[in-house]
Amino acid sequence: MSYPAPLEALIDAFERFPGIGRRSAERMAFFVLRDPKTRELPGLLRDALERTLRCRVCGNVGASAPCSLCADERRDARRVLVVEEPRDVEAVERSGVHQGRYFVLMGALNPATGHDERSLNLDALIERAARGEYDEVILGTDPDAEGEATATLVLRALEKSGARVRVTRLARGLPAGSALEYLHRGILEDAMNGRVELRMRKPD
Ligand SMILES: [Zn+2]
């Protein structure tokens, strides 16, 4: 037996969400049918899509472009923290351990999900580093396998560009396999203060 086509389409749509399998997608779709409040969802979706802007400078989401962090003159524009997701920016901002700028890659390398180099927002960072806009690029990708692979990718791209910049990685004291967004202030502070400089290889 199959569901009516519109319901099936909704289940398919939910199933595309990260971490949502067929059964969860079905539960979500039936919840939509049952709960009168979900009638507000189309409007909420439209608002989020239309009124959330991507910052041209850092790739982060915001209500303005450039975002409030890039527009803030008091922040150190020559020190940039590279993170995977906008929610990492939120976590670091809550902790108050970084007063520089951010650069949001919008993901990490992940062969399982097909996330490769081309799907990351990397070019603008490398171009700016090559133009000498930064004194320091801090690699703040997650301390898991994907995050490490992504940090290495950024380092290699910086090397290839010939950028003359200090590249650092957040300290290894971070719990392995964790995600930046879940770390509390003390751990983030230690990771920032104990960040290590990575050696750049000379471009061939
Ligand atoms: Zn920005």
What's this model, at a glance?
The chain is α/β, with parallel strands linked by helices.
Explain the overall architecture.
With about 200 residues, this protein is α/β, with parallel strands linked by helices. The protein has 2 domains: about 5-50, Orthogonal Bundle (Helicase, Ruva Protein, domain 3), CATH 1.10.8; about 55-195, Dna Topoisomerase Vi A Subunit, Chain: A, domain 2. The protein has helices at about 5-15, 20-35, 40-50, 70, 85-95, 125-130, 145-160, 185-195; strands at about 55, 60, 75-85, 100-105, 135-140, 165-170, 195. A 5-stranded mixed sheet has the order 4-3-5-6-7. Strands 1-2 form a two-stranded antiparallel ribbon. Strand 1 and strand 2 (about 60) form a beta hairpin. It is elongated and about 60 Å long. The protein binds zinc ion (ZN). Zinc ion binds near residues 55, 57, 58, 66 and 67.
Give the helices and strands, then pairings.
Blueprint lengths: L4 H11 L6 H13 L6 H11 L1 E2 L6 E2 L5 H4 L4 E8 L2 H10 L4 E5 L18 H8 L5 E4 L5 H17 L4 E4 L15 H9 L2 E2 L7
Helix pairs in contact: 1-2, 6-7
Bound molecules: zinc ion.
The site of zinc ion has 8 residues, from helix 4.
